[in-house]
Amino acid sequence: NEPVCECNTCYTGPDCSHFTPHCRVNADGGDPLFLEPFWIQHSTSSALLVSGWNRMSYTYSDNTFFSQQLESLIHKLHAFVGNAITQNRYIVFGAGSTQVLSAAAYALSLQNTTSQSPTRVVASIPYYTLYKYQAEYFNSEKFKFEGDAYTWKNISDDGANVIEFVTAPNNPDGRLNEAILDGPNVKTIYDRAYYWPHFTPIPAPANEDLMVFTLSKLTGHAGSRFGWAVIKDETVFNRMVTHMQINSLGVSKDAQFRAFKLLKAVLEQGTGIFDFAYRTMKTRWETLAATLSSSNRLSLQKINPQYCSFYNEVREFSPAYAWLKCEREEDKDCYAVLKAANIIGRQGNVFGSEDHYVRLSLIRGQDDFDILIERLKKLVSEEDGAR
Ligand code: PMP
């Protein structure tokens, strides 16, 4: 049988019960296993049975690669949560938002008909580094990664076309970023992976030209590889569909079926998954903040509470990641400080930032989080002059 158990870092064995005491705790990757307990509770309503002869064709009966039933469920979900306006918008699916983001960059760079030079791809620091990696890896004549959006703020009219990635809430620091650049040559891709009540108050439904979402951070099923874009412009939509066809002939129908079943279960539970996810993330954030409250050495990002239209009240923020700063001048390599304490985070430079910063993932399984807190407590208790 295929193993179903996914062990947390410090546990091994067929049922993940063997604890390795001095292991390095993984606070690096954004594996959203914090949602596993919710799905254990809703095992039956979310289960799939797929017979060998099911869903063999490339396409659906309407000859497209995208399930219309899943698309209408996505519309319903956004309407229920109120996190995005999707009426009269086009929707494109991809293998995770990773594929959708690259399709979006291709589609928008094809709109560059006036300039000879490649479209400039930018994001504000600290940024999610995939945008950079993709632009560099695809090495296209159409676009080139050009770093921090702020650098280009006052260079408005050099005629170059620009794609700005805006991550809201931001990975790594959880802020509700807004576009830095503006103008006729600027196109914006809003990465809304974390724009769910789990991680942030929802002040209003997002209504941008191109917004990208993912199942990974909504239901936690990162391994299903399913994401989608909500698009205003028909030409951009058609270009993204073409990209999907040439790149992978659409999206796995098995992944679409899984997404359908999960989103249906989400909607059947009303506010259930959002209540669970927010409670978990908020408790983790409070635990982390309390752990670091006596430290002079390590500090956390601060974001003020905001009104949330989903819960109709002012809510604290409950970010997916801690954007930790090592405050001491000598702790230039904050990653090394944490590594010495058996904690693996992600270096600030990966996000275009200084190495005084490290990102710690707060969305992993409970065991990983608990061990992270234990290790941080020890690190803080060993500080000279801790408050
Ligand atoms: N955007 C952001 C901001 C992310 O943090 C991630 C995952 N860490 C992704 C996109 C990609 O996620 P996926 O491909 O699983 O949808």
From TrEMBL:
- Keyword entries, A-Z: Aminotransferase, Membrane, Pyridoxal phosphate, Transferase, Transmembrane, Transmembrane helix
Protein family: Belongs to the alliinase family.
- Fragment boundaries within the full protein? 72 to 458 of 460
This protein's cofactor list reads: pyridoxal 5'-phosphate
Q: Which residues form the Alliinase C-terminal domain?
A: 25-380
List the coiled-coil residues: none
The record's Gene Ontology biological-process terms are: amino acid metabolic process
What is this protein identified as? TRYPTOPHAN AMINOTRANSFERASE RELATED 4
Named from the GO MF annotations, one term is: transaminase activity
